[in-house]
Amino acid sequence: MLTRRALIVRGGAAGAGVVFLWPGRAEAAAGPVLATTKSIPLGGGRIIKGKYVITQPKKGVYRCFSAKCTHQGCAVASVSRGTINCPCHGSKFSASTGAVVQGPAKRPLARKKIKVAKGKISLA
């Protein structure tokens, strides 16, 4: 007769096997699709849902940052001429690295991990 504990342990191991063997698991692990690669202009970028900024500083290179300015938390509003721009107090951040280019912000934008596959950009 199986004890309740043994049943739980065996059930958990079997369930773990299903998770690791399930086809397409790697695709399911990626977060929601934020944008397509075609929608991010070379040398520019796009603000997504007011939460993220995706840029393409070089052809085929995509970066993602928080859209929240590190100065006082305003949402950045645009990407142009290699910078991500905050309209509240004029802070500018590098579209390539998120580093501060012009204050008053002192900290870079938080970088987000992304996955680029089959023309789609999603959170990693």
From TrEMBL:
<comment type="function">
    <text>Iron-sulfur subunit of the cytochrome bc1 complex, an essential component of the respiratory electron transport chain required for ATP synthesis. The bc1 complex catalyzes the oxidation of menaquinol and the reduction of cytochrome c in the respiratory chain. The bc1 complex operates through a Q-cycle mechanism that couples electron transfer to generation of the proton gradient that drives ATP synthesis.</text>
</comment>
<dbReference type="InterPro" id="IPR036922">
    <property type="entry name" value="Rieske_2Fe-2S_sf"/>
</dbReference>
<dbReference type="InterPro" id="IPR006311">
    <property type="entry name" value="TAT_signal"/>
</dbReference>
<dbReference type="Pfam" id="PF00355">
    <property type="entry name" value="Rieske"/>
</dbReference>
<keyword id="KW-0411">Iron-sulfur</keyword>
<dbReference type="GO" id="GO:0051537">
    <property type="term" value="F:2 iron, 2 sulfur cluster binding"/>
</dbReference>
<keyword id="KW-0001">2Fe-2S</keyword>
<dbReference type="GO" id="GO:0016705">
    <property type="term" value="F:oxidoreductase activity, acting on paired donors, with incorporation or reduction of molecular oxygen"/>
</dbReference>
<dbReference type="InterPro" id="IPR005805">
    <property type="entry name" value="Rieske_Fe-S_prot_C"/>
</dbReference>
<dbReference type="GO" id="GO:0004497">
    <property type="term" value="F:monooxygenase activity"/>
</dbReference>
<protein>
    <recommendedName>
        <fullName>Cytochrome bc1 complex Rieske iron-sulfur subunit</fullName>
    </recommendedName>
</protein>
<keyword id="KW-0408">Iron</keyword>
<keyword id="KW-1015">Disulfide bond</keyword>
<keyword id="KW-0479">Metal-binding</keyword>
<dbReference type="InterPro" id="IPR017941">
    <property type="entry name" value="Rieske_2Fe-2S"/>
</dbReference>
<dbReference type="GO" id="GO:0016020">
    <property type="term" value="C:membrane"/>
</dbReference>
<dbReference type="InterPro" id="IPR014349">
    <property type="entry name" value="Rieske_Fe-S_prot"/>
</dbReference>
<feature type="domain" description="Rieske">
    <location>
        <begin position="32"/>
        <end position="123"/>
    </location>
</feature>
<dbReference type="GO" id="GO:0046872">
    <property type="term" value="F:metal ion binding"/>
</dbReference>
